[in-house]
Amino acid sequence: MKHIKNTLKLFKLDWQRIFKNPIATLLIIALMIIPSLYAWFNIKALWDPYANTGELPIAVYSDDQAASFKDKKVNIGEEVLKNLHENKQLGWKFVDSKKELDKGVKSGKYYAGIYLPKDFSKDLLSFTTGEITKPKIEYSINEKINAIAPKIAEKGATSLQAQITDQFTETASNTLVRVFNEIGYDLDSNLVSITKVKDMILSTDTNIAEIDKYTQEVVALHGKMPELKTKLAKANEFVEYLPEVDALGAKLVDLNAKMPAIKEQAKVILTLQEKIPEIQNAGKQLAMIDEDFASVEQTMNEGIEEAKQGLIIIQGVQQALPDIQKLGDQADQLASATSDGASKLQEALPSITSSIKVTLDSVQTISSNVSAIAGQIEQLLSDNELTPEERAALKQLLAQFSDSLAKQQAAIDQLIVMLTNIQQSAGNQDLQPIIDNLTSVSTLIGGLKARVDSIDADAISAEELEAVLNEIRATADNISSLAGSIDVDGVTASVNDILTKLIDTIHTAQGLLSQAKQVDFAALLRSTEATVANAIGILEKYQAELPAIKQEVHDANVLLNGHMDTIVNGINKGADLYNNELPIIEDKLGLAAAFIQNDYPGIRDNITGTLKTVNDKMPDLEAALNKANDLVKNDWPNIKKGLHKAAEAIREGEKDVDLGEVIKLLKLDANAESDFFAKPVEISEKQIYPIANNGSASTPFYTALCLWVGAVLFSSVATTDFYLEEKDRGKYSKREQFSARMLTFIVMGLAQALIVTLGNYFLLGVDVRQPFYSVLFALLIALAFMMMVYVLVALFGNVGKGIAIIILVLSISGGGGNYPIQVSGKFFQFINPLLPFTHAVNLLRESAGGIYWPNAWKAILILVVITIVFCLAGILLYPHIEEKTKKLASVSHESHIFH
């Protein structure tokens, strides 16, 4: 405890020294912010590097000459240039000659050049002659201008090659299929009837066995007609009983309606079950009275004697009555001063509780208001664009919503003030939890309003607006959830209870004083004297009857305690029936009543209506079955043989030529089929952890990097030695000085983490899926990094700083920040899992894109272990090697270069 106490004293002394020195204070603030600038500038610079590739100049020139195909002139190069005019992915520059193209690429005016030679179309169509020559595109590039630009330009050339291939494939296949298409439709127009008959015959023959089965079912159904007619007669008889079923259903519905009253009456058994301990206790008390009745007799005797003594005291009070009446007159003057206040509180109570309820109910509508406004905004975004008129409408919607939020926040703040005043008047803390919840709601509403006000309706894009809407929805749901968790009835009940107690206290005091004034104490004492005297007479009468009462108490004790187990078991069984069986009965009764009320009328109508239809159609059905049965037995065998012979003939003809397949192939949709040949596969992309832009994706790397840079920077400026006055040096140990300065370094690291993460989110607008966890993870990383750097520098001085810088250099290359570690060398792949920076970046990526907790916990555990190991190592080793570190530093100072 002493170590901790001294450490905290030194830590406090550190910050007192800082704030007393304006230059030191300014330097500390600068060191908190400067590392964040490193991250922010890099993130902003990389925000969307591929958004402006349309400005990257790529020269294009086509020397292509038209070629003949199917008596038509085809110039693929010209078509390519037309398409490139519509392509905005790169900055295509259409030059007038090959010479101009080559010169522009060599000079650096263009990053790359694409040239289509004279025979491009001819070579592309060479497959039609049988002498295939692959066409070539000449692609030249100036790679010394920039490291990334050649890759982008190369991607453009590859895309152009794919575009030409697709266009060629689509054109060739479209032409061939169109010719076949014309032949197929001509053949089909002359063979429609043949195809239909052929299909019908083959289909029927194929399904002969199934048709045979149906014919047998027709015969079987015909044989069951007498049975069906008998069942129909029974169904008609059942209809006659429907009135009785209706009456029974009405009774069932009535019983279900009375079920709440039955349950309420049966609930008495639960009350009895709750009273079992009291019943058992009453039995014990009755047994105790039975056992101690002798003491009851003694108590009765003593009571009579005490009553007689009380009579003497009353007579003494009568003598002091004048002085008591004088005191009552003085108290009455004090009570009258509070009468008006009590009346006003009583009148204001209903309006106070009503206003509380209305205010809290209104806050819960924020989520629904957001949903309504979001729906209107989504209508504006239906075409993913915002016209000037739609932006004006958006601006009006946002202004109205912001005004509504301001009013609701003001109402909540006013409610907080009112409840605080009521609580202070009551002199307790009963309303403090409710006040704290309301304060949180007010804070959230204020944050939501600020977010809404920050939206620039004139400049925001559709994608950004959609992302902001998701943030607003989440915040609004949080506000409604928090407001909904406040028990409105509980709030009003608490306020009502506090005010009622105040009012009752005032009224009670005044009432007692008024009553005391109005009482005729002389007459009261006289009547009391007579009452006491009468009581003495009654007690003496009961004293004479005590032997008979004693026998009755004994009999009651034997009856109750002798059957206590039977009584308790009976009550418990009744309560079990109420809790377990009665709800099941109630549910089943409710289902039955719902069926009678909702489903039964329709079923009854269906039964009566269906039976009427069946009775009407039964003669026709019977006649139809007779005819069908006659057809099956007499004509069906000959029909079946004829169908089979025709089908066999058709199949023999189709052994050589499948006319249906030929027609189908010839009738292909030229456009659809050519499109399929050109692009037979489509890619469906699914984003598991979507991140809005490249800047947001790079944020974890630069945030972690800035925290390490911040730790190294601060360790380079600030000293790890703790300066103490000569008189104080013996009071504090080396470990205490080390621990105190360590806390100062940690505070700086945490401040740097808060500034950079909050700046990422609020200043740059970085897309972070889990902002809260992003801040939390950054604080943990800052703690681990600052602990490592501080311990290294404290233990090894300038050598420790060098180690920290080496770790920084290795982290940039081996941390897998901007490029996958798999594309780096074997050495960097080896050190990647050994670098704390790797796990820091991985942890921040989880909060940026969406947390996968198994990965997050692994990184958290590693960082926590690193922090603990370095902390313990520093505390344990510092006192032992501190002198050696100073000697090493003094040696380096002799060079007059290092400090």
Give a description of the structure.
It is built from 32 helices and six strands. With 899 residues, it is mainly alpha-helical. The chain has a four-stranded mixed β-sheet, sandwiched between helices. A two-stranded antiparallel ribbon has the order 2-3. The longest helix has 71 residues. The protein starts with a helix and ends in a 6-residue tail after the last helix. Its main location: membrane. This is Phage infection protein. It is found in: Membrane.
Strand line-up of the largest beta sheet: 4-1-5-6
Q: Helix/strand/pairing class, anyone? A: mainly alpha
Assign an overall shape. Answer: flat
Overall number of domains:
4
Q: Cα distance, first to last residue?
A: 36 Å
- Give a quick account of the main beta sheet: strands, pairing sense, barrel closure: 4 strands, mixed
Q: Which regions have little confidence, pLDDT < 50, spanning 5+ residues?
A: none
Radius of gyration of CA atoms, rounded to a whole number? 48 Å
> Overall mean pLDDT score?
75
How much of the residues is beta strand, in percent? under 5%
- Supply the number of helical segments: 32
> Could you tell me the number of beta strands?
6
State the helicity in percent bands. over 70%
